[in-house]
Amino acid sequence: MTSSARRRATGIGAVALLIVLVSTGYALRSRLEIAPVFGEWWQTAFGRDTGMPTGQDMVATVTPATQSRGVPGTAARAEVRLDPRRQQLVGVRTVAVSRQSLNKTIRSVGVVTYDETKLVDVNVKLDGWIEDLYVDYTGRLVEKGEPLFTLYSPALLTTQHEHVLALETRDELRASEDADARSYAERMVASGRDRLALWDLSPDQIAALETTRTPQRAMVFYSPANGHVISKRAMEGLHITAGESLYQVADLSTVWIEADVYERELPVVRVGATAGVTLDAYPGDRFSGQVVYIYPYVEERTRTVKVRFELPNADGLLKPGMYANVELAVSAGAGLTVPVDAVLDSGAEQVVFVSLGDGYFEPRAVRVGQHLGDVVEILDGLDEAEQVATAATFFLDSESQLRAALQGFETAPDVVGTTSGSRERVDVQFQSRPDPPASGSNEFEVTVRDPAGRPIGDAEVAVVFFMAAMPTMNMPAMRTETPLRHVADGVYRGTGDVMTPGRWDVSVQVTRAGALLGTTQLTVVAR
Q1: What is the pLDDT of residues 80-115, one digit of tens each?
Q2: Residue 116 burial by CB count (10 A; 0-12/13-18/19+): exposed, middle or buried?
Q3: Spatial separation of the C-alpha atoms in residues 50 and 133, rounded to whole Å
Q4: How far is residue 510's CA from residue 517's CA, in Å, rounded to a whole number?
């Protein structure tokens, strides 16, 4: 062979190889485009080479006749059926709805504050100058009647002189025969005594003035209450005016704690309830307080309500400004409860999945009440002793919504005569060979049994494969229907075509004389 002939043969071979590679790549690209995203992900995550079930093994059976009873605008849901093997695979567990005491512990953080009913402001009712200061620093403990300061007041000094003059006049007129004059003198003495008392002079000070008949240039003023000085403005030489605050005295024998309680917990908080209080300053010590007041408004930023607790503080351990941990044990009677993880809360509605037996789970809207730790109160939607799913509920919910969404996206093959009323629970099992089915010809097998487990051999069985339209890929909806014939013992077989790889919705319809016996739906991923 000449060199030119060899070159021509080599070129032809290279072109042929290139054509084969391009064709293979195009075929693979077509398979990737046809297969829905979810199906490819499912096959990648749970393929047979991982040892996990694939295709129809892992997908729930769903009966579309029952829809969740949600409020308008919420996600539609359909009834789901899982056989025991699938329930074990996804970890579904059920518990009974129980009636129990609705005991709850509300925990909050609060701040120790003064008992406002035991705050006293010290001021005088006249102008003057402070001369001697006896209580001269903030925080000092004072007792009722203890001297605070002396005050020089021209008005007070003048009034003392006038009162002494009235006393002397009264004494002179006692021997007078003029009754009106004696009465007037007595009234002048009483008037002066009242004026001094209104200026907060004590009875002993007034009595001393009347006894000695000597006015005092600077008068002593005393503490009106027991407590600690929490504010002080008084100082020696200070000029003060009537009503000016000089001290604030707080009695700390009782204190308040004001804690924030979330508005959803407020209905069970009652005035008079007892609370336990702990403080970081005294680890291991527990104090007892009582709810004395619930504020009448909600803090808009935090959505909380302030609750006031009163605590005795005879030893002075509780100091205003301390942070406190408050635990309030409350009871709201008795009611139906389920575990918290049994309720799916979307905000607009709360849904639980009720076990109806034979692997059927019905999505049901409920109305919830108080959250009580790891359980939640059910106000409406469930009856006592009903079984609800408490694990893998997100799997049930996603499959339920997916089935309902597919039914609403494009009408899937419906079963003639299907109603939402009561129906016989016929057990319908579907298998394909190969499993999962492949693109092209496949053998389908369906086993039909009545609720007692007896085979049904006189029914008409059809298997419908349906793939919704995918406008973004310019693909129309696809549908194939394969009738099956009875072989033996309730087993029906037939051969049907799967048009393309990808995710298919499979509907198995079982009828007898035009009447529906049962139906089941599942999803498979064809290869």
Answers
A1: 777 787 778 888 888 999 998 888 889 999 999 999
A2: exposed
A3: 89
A4: 6
Q: Which residue in 57, 63, 59, 68 sits closest to 38, CA to CA? A: 59
Q: Mind listing the pLDDT tens digit for each residue in 337-352?
A: 999 888 988 778 889 9
Position with higher pLDDT, 43 vs 448 = 448
Crossing angle of helices 179-198 and 203-212, rounded to 10°: 130
Nearest CA to 363 among 342, 348, 377? 342
d(CA 461, CA 484): 6
Is 60 exceeded by the pLDDT of residue 45?
no
Residues 6+ apart with CB under 8 A from 37: none
Q: Using CA atoms, how far apart are residues 201 and 155, in angstroms rounded to an integer? A: 13
**Count of CB atoms situated within 10 Å of the CB of 225:** 16
Please state, in angstroms and as integers, the Cα–Cα distance from residue 326 to each residue in 255, 300, 302, 375, 511, following that order: 14, 22, 18, 22, 65
Contact 55, 437 (CB under 8 A): yes
Q: Six-digit token pair at 315?
A: 């030893």
Q: Which residues, other chains included, contact 527 with Cβ-Cβ below 8 Å and sequence gap of 6+?
A: 43, 436, 437, 438, 439, 501
List the structure tokens of 58.
Answer: 């892992």
Is there a contact between 145 and 203 (Cβ–Cβ < 8 Å)? no
> Residue 506, by phi and psi: left (phi above 0), alpha (psi -120 to 50) or beta?
beta
End-to-end distance of the chain based on CA atoms, in angstroms?
A: 47
pTM of the model: 0.56
Q: Which of 527, 397, 502, 491 is nearest to 62 (CA)?
A: 397
- Concatenated DSSP letters of 292-345: EEE-SS-BTTTTEEEEEEEEE-TT----TT-EEEEEEEEEEEEEEEEEGGG-EE
- The answer to whether the beta carbons of residues 363 and 353 sit under 8 Å apart is yes
- Checking 89-92 for CB contacts under 8 A at 24+ apart, the result is 89/53, 89/58, 90/392, 90/395, 91/391, 91/392, 92/361, 92/389, 92/391, 92/392, 92/395, 92/396
pLDDT, one tens digit per residue, over 364-405 is 999 998 887 788 889 999 999 999 988 877 778 777 776 666
